[in-house]
Amino acid sequence: MVKGRRLHLINSHILGAFNFDKKCTALDEYRERGRQINIKLLHDKFYEPFAEDYKQVWDLMKEKEDLFNHVLYADLSREGLKERSQRQINHIVPKCNVTYESIQENPLRKLGMLTGIGSNDLISGTRSLVHFCLYIETVQNLGTAKHLGIIKRAYALKDYGCCGMTELGHGSNVAKVETTATYDHSSRELVINSPTPTAAKWWIGAVGKTANMAAIFCQLIVDGTNHGVHAFVVPIRDYETHKPINGVTLGDCGHKSGLQGIDNGFLLFKNYRVPYDALLDKYSQISPDGKFKSHIKNKEKRFGLMLTGLITGRCSIVIVSELHTRNALTIAIRYAAVRKQFGGEIERPILDYPVHRFRLMPHLAKDFAANMSMKLICRLYNGRFRLIDSEPESPDVTEFHALVSVFKALHGWYGQKAIQECRECCAGHGFSSYAGFAKLRADNDAHMTWEGENWVVIQQTSRWILKVVQGTFKGHPIRSPYLQFIYLNATKPRFSNKEQLKHAEWLISLFEYRCNYYITESLNKLQENGRSYQDMTVAWNRTQVHYLIDLAKSFGELIQLKEFNNFVNDLTKKCPATGQVIANVMYLFASHVLDQETSSFKNTFDAEQAKWIAETVDELCDEVGEDSVKIIDAIALPDHVIASAIGHSDGQVYQRYTQAVENAPGCFDPPSWLNLIHETRKAINL
Amino acid sequence: MVKGRRLHLINSHILGAFNFDKKCTALDEYRERGRQINIKLLHDKFYEPFAEDYKQVWDLMKEKEDLFNHVLYADLSREGLKERSQRQINHIVPKCNVTYESIQENPLRKLGMLTGIGSNDLISGTRSLVHFCLYIETVQNLGTAKHLGIIKRAYALKDYGCCGMTELGHGSNVAKVETTATYDHSSRELVINSPTPTAAKWWIGAVGKTANMAAIFCQLIVDGTNHGVHAFVVPIRDYETHKPINGVTLGDCGHKSGLQGIDNGFLLFKNYRVPYDALLDKYSQISPDGKFKSHIKNKEKRFGLMLTGLITGRCSIVIVSELHTRNALTIAIRYAAVRKQFGGEIERPILDYPVHRFRLMPHLAKDFAANMSMKLICRLYNGRFRLIDSEPESPDVTEFHALVSVFKALHGWYGQKAIQECRECCAGHGFSSYAGFAKLRADNDAHMTWEGENWVVIQQTSRWILKVVQGTFKGHPIRSPYLQFIYLNATKPRFSNKEQLKHAEWLISLFEYRCNYYITESLNKLQENGRSYQDMTVAWNRTQVHYLIDLAKSFGELIQLKEFNNFVNDLTKKCPATGQVIANVMYLFASHVLDQETSSFKNTFDAEQAKWIAETVDELCDEVGEDSVKIIDAIALPDHVIASAIGHSDGQVYQRYTQAVENAPGCFDPPSWLNLIHETRKAINL
């Protein structure tokens, strides 16, 4: 198919309706503007820690460039996109040497491969992640030595696995899943059932078409007693025939907002009998005499451990949503440097206009901030990954969950807003699929709600912070290095002149104060609501809006600012000029956060201070805008990975775009429904 | 095709994997909650002025329900969607008796038909609008008596027309389009040319497949002099063969973010000769001796008149984006009443949670506000429509442009935010195409940038306001009834207690003050920037962010609040109970606007006042949330028009949703690329 298209492309290039007789130099002209930076230095630091992993994956993509070029596949059917994705996976994954042993040594490498794939296409990234993380890590985290063979088969792609947690009727509230696994002592088997239609496992990646194995979460019932949710590893399709196994009904969840190439499916079980060893029995076992036992007596704690398999999925979102945001910004900024409109006889690039800079640059700043928190999560990942196995109840694991949760939510939100703004900034041409935003937006949209709905998941962060604070009331010291600011910056730093908004230390203390402000406000409101509603869950729920959500966000933004500052300091040591340019991006991030604040914290500033903030945002947007094409050159993914007709680094926007249009199927064809036009003409008498 | 699908549907209903043995009563239970309202009264008032037009169109849709049911068409190809749309148009339009005469009598009827169609599917709505408004009204506004035959043919659908304004290289800056129409006196013909590739007319609806006629905008060149942009009506396809006419190259613009069923296309001209009468010659003519003449000497003014054809398109956006927002809210609110998650042993509907109410209810309030401004625009429409013809330079026309511009932008933005939030509020299931959000979001997304890019178009409103203000400096009285507040509420009304946020008159004076605040701030900033930059265009551009954009928005919100208040007063007279419930929605609109304010105006409140606002938002979200299912019942479009599997008024969310999934093509099929799975297994040695 690709071959045919190529030929068409070559043919119509010769016959093309659009005759571009000279190269467009607008992007190169913009490249000359702004301050000089060390592009290689910024690039290398920005790509940490995945430079090598990405290079490997992206080089493989380059080998089959067409297979990874979205422009050529805009019209592909749902089934066609699934096939294409399988081809992509087959081309890349086996060459990446991701084995059980290599990943035990360096777990982060797996995330490197997966997000490298996902940076081009979230479909193939997610399909790989479902297998390599959700499936394998569930078996690994919750299983025991006897399951090692299953894990190794999976790493070698002999099996393709899925992870059946979510059900039609239960997403966030996993504790309430309806699927049951009832122990039958007579045969020492487990009998799996979906007692109602809403018990259907739903949205399960790889179930629709690919998987032959599944890790599934069911209520474990032994001798009539429900011991809560446990995980089981079971075949769902016959290995040879690929047909559903007796007792398993499965199908594809159909058309979606995006990601059509992922075969999300549903699973229903009817008296499906599996041997005892299907139980992933690290934390719970059934003794040979048929008794349930677990060294973790607390059912809720046991449940918490069941969910540890989600963490890598969330980490992948922290990483990949930043990559997609960056892709959108790359396209929009390059396009804005080329696109000219208004400005007198000689029209000016739209990137020159203050409004356009205001629309794009804060998102660039947020993308930098997200890159910083991504690095933090990656730095912690290997240690925490091992701890989840050896000491899952360690406070370091809880802290990691809290950090990942807030960045999972923040990065997804950053992405959705940025991609939408980038699309709008390219005006009409941003609406073309060949621009790339439609796919980026639809793909990133999934992050809002999968692997933990954002508004639910971010509550883990505020809960953790407040628990630590409440611990201090009982005299417990604050262990987490990320919470040392509590009580330290409890009074607002003096804000006496506009220039302070360009001092990192002052900004950090302001952000620390801001987070402390939300802690105090939240605690007060919680107390007030506790008095009004008695039930602490109700009081907690009533303290989300304007309090706990803002607390979690302000914490995430504080951590980002601190990490950003370390990044800038390090950069400055190596190249002061580059450090200065990127420091501006950091100041923009901070002042934009303050400017866009809608909570009562904003009213701790007086009108003059608020204006300083607004003016600083405007000025920095302008300055960063002038430097932005160079900054993008440093951080952009390679052209063949972004695969946008209007965002290419050579700046040939119109030529690539019209070529994409001319080569799309049916561009010059008459309507196949011409008869309907004739029919229309006859409908009314003149 | 539809028939085959129906059969499949019936078959698998019998064989279905999901066995729903009892009806879900959750939605009906929520209906019992909240305060009683007069649903019919609210419905009738909300549907003004289009109740009859919509009834006619929606009844026609009911006749062929499947043809308008998006759930059945999620997998349709681009070409298939175009065909489907033509079938929809053929089914509805000829029965609506939209003729030249009937529309001259009541121009608004046309908007009723078009937005009625668009409420179900923006594809068919837009395709009809392109012909009935963009094409016909361009010919009518800019042509003369001799063009009447063309208009009448178009009304009778003998011709299908398009409107070629935008070019590949020029969207917003229409004055700079490159296409030329050069007058050749020897034959009294016009010779049309696209001198460069970027001169291609681009995105032109109906060019891709349907149109045989075009109104096109070209630089008129007479005797070597460019007289600026003028419009011409020309054939582009042979009436009989439907092939492009010699000298015309045309094609389809390809795959888009959405709206695949619209055949947006491109047009290139090469020495295309058309007779003199192709010139729409109301404002400019070429005399028989070959001299250009126009009674409007000012080239810029003449150019302004050329754009009057855009106004109806913008009005349609004002209307249809509110309808789509309402559809999204209908789906999300009903789903939230049915979906249960957390809350203890017996789970609670997610609509019960304060966070969920905070996420949805402000959008419901904004949708009401948009419905109010929609009604205002419709009330003015007929008068202004005629004025555009008879007295296009009247200040009433300018005022109308300014009003339409701000609401075109605001409603589009409201819609994009609301639809995205609704989608996220339905979590995973919101990502399914059968929910309906994917289409709503992609369709509404087009409004951001077509018919005037929002950030550009909204400047017309601030420009108009400041011109009127500057007029007062010269002693001109303020004529517009919408600007009478200027100078009247120049000081901030006292804000001494929280209860004031539920007093409409006080809120209106606050919103008037707010708009006056932005006028003053903008004028000061303009002056300051004028001193810094000399060039007034630069100064103007540098005053957009934090000033002029906020001014325009605050004006739009003020008008919405006033209209909303009139609506509530009228409702209260007829039914005080209903009036009270909807007054809450209005207070929520107002307090949410104030709460989410990010500009320095927010800092005119002290911390206590800011908290009053936030608390009022929280309380009103809660109250409106409790009433929301009933409110939605009153304002929702019929089920067959919304066509969502999870938003149906009968509340059978899971049953309809699983049915949609089971009946989608290939649900139970094995992958057609099974060979690739086998290939994967062989890639690595175990």
UniProtKB/TrEMBL annotation, chains A, B:
UniProt-recorded name of the protein: Acyl-coenzyme A oxidase
Catalytic site: E451
GO BP annotation list: fatty acid beta-oxidation using acyl-CoA oxidase; lipid homeostasis
Cofactor(s) needed: FAD
Family: Belongs to the acyl-CoA oxidase family.
Cell location: Peroxisome
Entry GO MF terms: acyl-CoA oxidase activity; FAD binding; fatty acid binding
Keywords per UniProt: FAD, Fatty acid metabolism, Flavoprotein, Lipid metabolism, Oxidoreductase, Peroxisome
Segments forming domain Acyl-CoA oxidase/dehydrogenase middle: 162-271
GO cellular component annotations of the record: peroxisome
Acyl-CoA oxidase C-alpha1 domain: residues covered: 309-465
Native species: Blepharisma stoltei
Top-rank taxon, per record: Eukaryota
PANTHER family: ACYL-COENZYME A OXIDASE-LIKE PROTEIN (PTHR10909:SF352), ELECTRON TRANSPORT OXIDOREDUCTASE (PTHR10909)
Domain Acyl-CoA oxidase C-terminal: 505-677
Binding positions (FAD): T166, G205
Keyword Lipid metabolism: yes
